[in-house]
Amino acid sequence: MPIIYKCSKCNSIVYAFIRAGQDYYGVPSPSELIVRVGGICPNCGRNIESKIDLNSIIIALFK
Predict the structure, then answer these.
(1) Distance (Å, rounded) from C-alpha 3 to C-alpha 14?
(2) Less Cβ crowding at N or C end of the chain, within 10 Å?
(3) How far apart are CA 19 and CA 17, in angstroms?
(4) What mean pLDDT is predicted for residues 28-43?
(5) pTM, whole model, 2 decimals?
(6) Which helix (H) or strand (E) holds 15?
(7) How far is CA 23 from the centre of its chain?
(8) What is the rounded CA–CA span in Å between residue 45 and residue 2?
(9) DSSP helix/strand/coil, 4
């Protein structure tokens, strides 16, 4: 099951973890992702929030 981090402003994909073995470190936590991308959305330039609200997490099944 892929894990996708999206910008809350422009809805663009900031990071996508598609399969095991893709990255040596595995799925990054939100704080690790902020460090990787420099704390801003590469598409719109909005600051990425370091604290995640559970209401902003969406679990979806794709076929």
Answers:
(1) 11
(2) C
(3) 6
(4) 87
(5) 0.72
(6) strand 13-17
(7) 14
(8) 24
(9) strand
Bridge partners (DSSP) of residue 15 are 5
Identity at 44, one-letter amino acid code: C
Q: What are phi and psi of 37, to 5 degrees?
A: -100, 5
Tell me the sheet residues that pair with 13.
Answer: 6
List the beta bridge partners of residue 47. Answer: 40
Q: Identify the three-state secondary structure at position 5.
A: strand
**Does the pLDDT of residue 7 top 70, yes or no?**
yes
Q: If residue 37 lies in a helix (H) or strand (E), which one and from where to where? A: helix 30-37
Q: How far apart are CA 62 and CA 47, in angstroms?
A: 28
Structure tokens at 49: 């929030």
